[in-house]
Amino acid sequence: MEEFIKIFQGLNRAHGVTYVDRKGADGQKIKGKSFVQRDMVTEKMWHNHLNGIEPSLGIIPITDDNTCKWGCIDIDSYAGFDHKKLIDKIKNLNLPLLVFRSKSGGAHVFCFTTVPVEAKLMRDKLVSVSAVLGYGGSEVFPKQVELKSKDDTGNFLNLPYFNCKNTTRYCFNENAEAVSLDGFFNLYQLNKITPDQLENLKIKRPESEFSDGPPCLESITQTEIKDGRDRILYQYIQYAKRKWPESWQGKINAFNYKYFEKHSEGPLDDKIVQGKIKFNDGKDLGFKCNEDPMCNHCDKKLCRTRKFGIGGDSVFPILSDLQKVELDEPYYWVNVDGERVKLDNIDYLMEQRLFRRTVAKQINKKPKRVTVKEFELYVDQLLRGVEIIKAPEGSSIIDQLKEHLEEFCTNRTAAQTTKKDILNGNVYTEDGQHKFIFHKFYHGHLQRKKWPEKPQVTQQMLKEYCDCKDDRISIGKKRPSIMVVNAFDRPTDNHTQKKLKEDSPY
After folding, report:
1. Domain 2-199 CATH (choose: 3.90.920, 3.30.2000, 2.60.120, 2.70.98)
2. pLDDT higher at 302 or 257
3. Domain ranges in the chain?
4. Residues 203, 131: contact at Cβ < 8 Å?
5. Which of 23, 97, 189, 491 has the most crowded CB, counting CB atoms within 10 A?
6. Residues 6 or more apart in contact with residue 80 via CB below 8 angstroms
């Protein structure tokens, strides 16, 4: 167990749990319930995982210092996936990767390092690898290059070797044979690499006439094209228009016959091709990177460096890995081209204007404006795969606000204030009520606690959930607006000098 923990260590303040409902039939994903749990990963959790005691354990590879010791390409396939073919491809490319059978029968392709490396380096390398392998649309872990705060947990991956003595989540050797846990430890020692080796890892790409264009065209044209002729031709047209702006029309038919000749239905009809040429003439429509099969071979970072790739084009980013933090007022995390963006509420996901503004503000990228229909498709896709983050007891945003309010109203300074002290940001208590100025509470107390909500929202929450009311108070010639709440029971403190009432005979 110690060796297993050492290899798969990751973020320790949160983890994933999965309860399996049932096994699916061939070609059907194993169904279950998965969510992120915000608490420490204990030895008992590791022990239960290896011994097959549910829930199975998921680990978040990225740590709070934005490093990781492993990364993984999660190839989501459930219908007779050919692990041997994948292993042979990895071997031919001379890549230091290990292939595992995933929970649902697909593949987890792991890269292990001797010591922690920057999460960005691991992710960038594996994104490029997945594109070369033909699985560019697969999930890559770590899914984030940076955790934005202690509230951000990242995404977890279900670990292998659940019920290790009789597991279906095992590592393969180079002959595509399943190996035991001890056998995996041996393979790990042979395949782990240093940070320098990862940094200098060369990913061989095929020689192609499209080496100056999108990598997806480079890869697709090296394989047997089985589907997507229309979409592939569209992508080629955008490339041709950039490379031969004056004569691109004459290149399209040649591409159609050269690369679709072996298609089961043969090349596209000449009339269809001419129609596409006419439709694209005089228009700058841009590449469609997120559509199949281009997304399976997409390497956006490399594409931006290509002379006739996406370059400086404004393209809509790849959105993935939506997480919902289950609070009274839930907020969301989403990956935008691998960078973490926080959405304060569901409106920031549903409204394109708010979404684009939030992305620009947080990660300095301005997503291309797309049609309402296109944006809705992106959102629908995200919501179908949303991951739930369970909040600890007492951690709802309302619970937090109530705690902050009580702390503010019952501290030692508040117990000793006079009416005038309200103007200095303190609390005055009389007739069983705490009285304070809202902006003093917000800026002087809540902001120090890294409170996430805006002033207007917070003020409304105080009224709706904390029984606060608006009022005014006379202080000399001033009559400031204040908030009033029923007094909290102050904690007893022998060192606190209790303030006597002004009308006390003593």
Report:
1. 3.90.920
2. 257
3. 2-199, 215-303, 319-390, 397-486
4. no
5. 97
6. 26, 27
